[in-house]
Amino acid sequence: MKYFPISSDLFARNRNKVLRQLPHDSIAVIHSNDLIPRNGDLFFKFRQHSDLFYLTGIEQEKTILVLIPGASDNKEKAVLFILEPKPEIEIWEGKKLTITQAQQISGISHIEYEHTFHIFFAKLLQHYNCIYLNKNENPRLHTFVKSRDDRFKRIIRKRFPEKQIERLAPIITECRLRKEPEEIALIEQACNITTNAFKQTVPYIKPGIYEYEIEALLTKEFIAHGASGHAFEPIIASGANSCFLHYVSNNTVLQPNTIVLMDFGAEYANYASDATRVIPVSGKFTQRQKQVYEAVLRVLKQTTKLIITGTTILEYQEQTKLYIQEELLHLGLIKQHDITKQTKDKPAYFTYFMHGVSHFIGLDTHDVGNKDTVLEPGMVVSCEPGIYIANEGIGIRLENDILITETGNKNLLEQMPIEIEEIEDLMNSYWHNKKIN
Ligand SMILES: [Mn+2]
Predict the structure, then answer these.
(1) In CATH, what class is 8-177?
(2) What pLDDT, on a 0 to 100 scale, did the predictor assign at position 89?
(3) Which residues surround ligand 1, an ion (CB under 5 A)?
(4) Class assignment of domain 181-436?
C-alpha cells in the first residue's frame, strides 16, 4: 500500500458499531470485491469493497469477514478468512498477506485461510438461524454483474433454504455515514493532495494543449504524493464540453478565451476527495465568463452556510435552486414570466442547472447516505452548484468538500484557490516567473 498504516483501532471500532446493531442470535458475512477480468489473461486494477475495507483494512481479493455478536469470547466476535499465500502465485503477483500481517492490519486475532471457510461456516450454521448478508443497495446502480456477496446469497438460499436472511446494508450504511477522526484525517489528506495537484497543474494551462495533458499532470501529482490515483474518472472539459456533466473523453484541444472545467479528486487510503474548479484558458476570464463564474461562486458560498447539523441535502437543495433562479434572472437567462408559468416537473432554472447540489463523500466518491439523511457532525458532503449555458459554451461548476462539525462546518478544500483573482494569479504565475528569470 502507498499510504501510512492506519491504526487497527479504527477497524475494531467500526466492527463494534456493526456488532452492536446485530441481534445476538444472528451472524453476518461480508465478502471482498472480486478481481474483475479485463481481456485475455488480464484483470482490472483491484479495489477493495468499501464495506470490507471499512471493517478490516484488508486490501486483498478472496477475503471474507464473519461477525458473530453472540460469541462468548470477545476475540471470536470477528473471524477473518484470507487467501493462503502460495510461492507459485507470489512469484508472479508479489507477496500476499500472512496471517500475522492480516492480524496487525485488522486487529482481528482469529484468522484462517479462505479455503477452510465453508467448513467453518457450515458448523457455525448449526447454532444460528439468522444470517445478515451484504449487498450494494445504491439506488443509482444498475448492473447485471453479480458480486461475491450476491453469489454467496444465492448459495445460501439454495443450500440452507430454512435459514432467515436479513439485509446488512442498512446497518453498515448507518455506521459509515459518521466518520471517525482517523477517517476525517484521511479525507483531509486526499483533499490536500488534490489541492496541491491543482496548484501545480494550473500554471501549465494555455491555449493549444489537450485536455488529457491536464489529466496527465494531475495524475502525476496524485501518484507522486501517495494517492492510489483518481477517486473517479477526472472530467477535464474545455469550451462547450463544460456543459456535458460527465464528460470524460478529455481529448479536445484548448481554444483561446474559452474556459476549462476540471472535476477531479485524489483517492488516498481508499478515501475520496472531489473538487471542481473552472480556469480561463488564456489566463483571464472574459466579462461574460466572469459574470457567470461570480454567480455560481455566490451560490456556492450561500449554500455552504446551510450545510449544518439537523438539515438534509433535500432541504437545502431547495434553497440552492432559489439562489440559482435569482442568478439566472440577473444573467438574463430566464425572465420573471418563465418562473410564473413554470411547472413542478419543468422549473425554469432546470435548463441551466440540472443536477443535485450535494452527495456524501467517504470511502466512495458518491458515498452511502441519502438526500433525506439528517446531517450530523462527522459527515462529509460535497457542495457543487453550477450554471450551464450550452449555446454560449460556458459551463461553470464549483465544488468543495464540506465536513459538518459541532459548531458549523469546515471546507476541506479551503486552500484550493477559487476567487477569480486567485485563479488568474495562479494561472499566470508560471509564465510570469519565466519572464522574470
Ligand atoms: Mn461531486
Answers:
(1) alpha beta
(2) 86
(3) 274, 382
(4) alpha beta
